[in-house]
Specification:
dopa decarboxylase, N-terminal domain; 246 residues; single chain; 4-stranded parallel beta sheet; alpha/beta; Aspartate Aminotransferase, domain 2
């Protein structure tokens, strides 16, 4: 698409939006569609060749507009992230597919993604504990949950813990400003002995103040094996601050 076509298509899109608003009463108030409807309407793999603008807009009307805006867009994100997962040759457990065990959606910011991961870990941890000990209340479990991150981590990690109403402990770093396995292990064991429930660790790959990388090859196995009476493992998020990737 060159500059001239970009200008022309941009004007057409303004007309499309204006026409939608002007004739909105002709569209259904609520979509008569079931969750997951979109997956069968588009390819299961990312296209290898580009499509024309007309073909894209035809698909928008055929696939997206029949559904309520946000659910349709969320389903599209899920399918497209499956495309990305397949392109990266990720394990099947990372793919939503038709079973819905993996997958994901696009978050607006890295800070939002950190918060979502913490809330998901919190929710899953509480559910797991309630299965094994139904006498405990959610508020009692929540008061004992503890998360961890580097003392070099971006402030958004600490804010996520504040919003999620869980304790966040900052793990001291080595002379290279990186978290090592023994540092995290010591804090986890102390907290377990105190009756707390370790459930989440946010590692950093390129910290904001020092561009340091935590030792993931050490920390990953620790998080996987850091079991206590209620949990199978610490949930591990790897966040990049200096390069903006998560």
């Amino acid at each position: 698409m060159d500059a001239a076509e970009f200008r022309r298509r941009g004007k057409e899109m303004v007309d499309y939006v204006a026409d939608y608003l002007e004739n909105i009463e002709q569209r259904p108030v609520y979509p008569d569609l079931e969750p997951g409807y979109l997956r069968s309407l588009i390819p299961t793999e990312a296209p290898l060749e580009p499509e024309s603008y007309e073909e894209i807009m035809h698909d928008v009307e055929r696939v997206i507009m029949p559904g309520a805006a946000s659910p349709a867009c969320t389903e599209l994100e899920t399918v497209m992230l499956d495309w990305l997962g397949k392109m990266l040759h990720l394990p099947e457990s990372f793919i939503a597919g038709t079973h819905g065990h993996g997958g994901g959606v696009i978050q607006g910011t890295a800070s939002e993604a950190t918060l979502m991961s913490l809330l998901a870990a919190r929710c899953k941890t509480i559910r797991q504990i309630l299965v094994t000990d139904s006498k405990k209340s959610e508020s009692e479990i929540l008061s004992k949950l503890v998360a961890y991150t580097s003392d070099q981590a971006h402030s958004s990690v600490e804010r996520a813990a504040l919003i999620g109403a869980v304790m966040m402990r900052k793990v001291p770093t080595d002379e290279h400003y990186a978290v090592r396995e023994e540092m995290l292990r010591k804090m986890v064991e102390e907290d377990k002995a105190a009756g707390l429930i370790p459930f989440y660790f946010c590692a950093t790959l390129g910290t904001t103040p020092s561009c340091a990388f935590d030792h993931i090859m050490e920390l990953g196995p620790l998080c996987k094996s850091a079991s206590c009476s209620q949990l199978q493992s610490l949930r591990l998020l790897m966040a990049g601050s200096s390069d903006g990737s998560i």
